[in-house]
Amino acid sequence: MTRIALVTGATSGIGRATALALAKQGYHIIATGRRTERLEELKQELQEVVPVLTLTFDVRDKEAVQQAIASLPEAWKQIEVLVNNAGNAHGLSPIQEGSLEDWEAMLDINVKGLLYVTHEVLPLMLAHKKGHIVNIGSIAGKEVYPNGNVYCASKFAVDALSKAMRLDLIHEGIKVSEVNPGLVQTEFSEVRFKGDKERAAGVYKGIEPLRAEDIADVIAFVVSRPAHVNLAEVMVLAGAQASATIASRK
Ligand code: NDP
Ligand code: 8X3
What we know:
Radius of gyration: 17 Å
Structural class: alpha/beta
Number of strands: 7
Order of helices and strands: EHEHEHEHEHEHHHE
Helix content: 40-55%
Shape: globular
Bound molecules: NADPH dihydro-nicotinamide-adenine-dinucleotide phosphate, 2-hydroxyethylsulfonic acid
Strand order of the largest sheet: 3-2-1-4-5-6-7
């Protein structure tokens, strides 16, 4: 039977690795993001293994999200797994120095974007009373850290929404899980620090961070549990990390 997974933010980092890991499990992949050329590259790589469909849209644009999901050919509409991964941090400043633009970006992408995609995909799952939504939260959605303010708030919202979705969807045959990574070396810090590669590299200095593939492996494990098992929440930290602020650095 055909199994379809839609992964948002598949152009980079955790989303890209997840698309690859789910393809290895035999899922047909719908890969989304804003960078079309990256999606094309991923498609070239993946279609050796499974059928792939790419959708370019910005999760902040609700009309674009609606149109993209509505444009799916019938054969691709029976989405079984939705990985709500698209997200990022913008800036790392005390609240009194924060930028409205950065705050809006984080809330619009990490919270509203996740909701827009979920709003369009859910009816497709409900039609078959089957599905699994995996939201990518963060350790930053469990504990706040200095200067993390609005990014942490956006991930606390993902945590609340994951719990709330699980309650609301329990009678609909839809599982909801939340995977909460710690320090993963991806494009995340480069985006947070607006392209400052040196500052971004400093985040992972003296510590062996997680790789995107480590999180993808966990997501693939979460969605491959039998029907009677739901890994509702998983926190994945780097081996040398104890909390959002405590790590053993060499
Ligand atoms: P990357 O920056 O490598 O990837 C982010 C992905 O999100 C890209 O594919 C990007 O695609 C997509 N994205 C960002 N903004 C938008 C948008 N407006 N519309 C559509 N897609 C968008 O970071 P990660 O892989 O690390 O991040 C993935 C998720 O993991 C995020 O939710 C992040 O908060 C979370 N996370 C990351 C951690 C880390 O340490 N790296 C730790 C904990 C959680 P494109 O730019 O092409 O649109
Ligand atoms: C990303 C992890 O600790 O940089 O969500 O906020 S952290």
